[in-house]
Design brief:
This protein is an alpha/beta fold and 195 residues long. 45% of the residues lie in helices and 13% in strands. The protein has helices at residues 5-14, 21-34, 36-52, 69-72, 87-96, 123-130, 146-161, 184-192, and strands at 54-55, 62-63, 77-84, 101-105, 137-140, 165-168. It starts with a helix and ends with a helix. Bound molecules: zinc ion (ZN).
């Protein structure tokens, strides 16, 4: 394809997860043909989000404030710290309505083949966060993929060496699963049955 604004738009849309060339073209054509206002709102929303959304200093989830709303919420049980791989997984746990502790978001999981190590996912920051003297139990809610399990294993060892109680979401969440795609009642059950 020749260089053009349309091609640039299609290429930009293709960067989204799960979007191939056909879908990207369909989205681009739709926006230009039927929804130019929507396209401008999308452009503005993207710019605002990229400018304003950073990471919470305490839990690393997305936040426009230095410390996110969840970490600042006095109703939350600060003795429980749930470790998840992504803000999407955090949102999945929040939707169950059955967890009232705090979170730590790794922003990834160990993946030696892709060069993602302990430093990249913030293990040192997690150990510091969990050692604040208030946290009594760390719940590992990394995914049930091979990499998520390896991550949970490494974290469990490091946390236990520091005398912290560590639990893992119960099996029941299917092996190979990304938490964000698991249904809510399954996650809620896995949370209650953690060990
Ligand atoms: Zn936070």
């Amino acid at each position: 394809m020749a260089e053009s604004s349309l091609n640039a738009l299609v290429e930009a849309l293709r960067r989204l997860p799960g979007v191939g060339i056909k879908s990207a073209q369909r989205m681009a054509f739709h926006l230009l043909q039927h929804d130019r206002d929507g396209a401008l709102r999308l452009a503005q929303a993207l710019r605002d989000a990229v400018d304003k959304v950073g990471h919470c200093q305490r839990c690393h989830t997305f936040s426009e404030q230095p410390v996110c709303e969840t970490c600042r919420d006095p109703q939350r049980d600060a003795r429980l710290l749930c470790v998840v791989e992504s803000p999407a997984d955090q949102a999945a746990l929040e939707r169950t309505g059955s967890y009232h502790g705090l979170y730590f978001v790794l922003l990834g999981r160990l993946s030696p083949l892709d060069g993602v190590g302990a430093r990249d996912i913030g293990v040192a920051e997690l150990l510091e966060r969990a050692g604040d003297g208030v946290v009594e139990e760390v719940i590992l809610a990394t995914s049930f993929t091979a990499e998520g399990e390896a991550t949970a294993h490494l974290l469990a060892q490091a946390l236990r060496e520091r005398g912290l109680k560590v639990t893992r979401l119960a099996r029941g969440v299917p092996a190979g699963s990304e938490l964000e795609y698991v249904d809510l009642s399954t996650i809620a059950h896995a949370l209650v049955e953690r060990r």
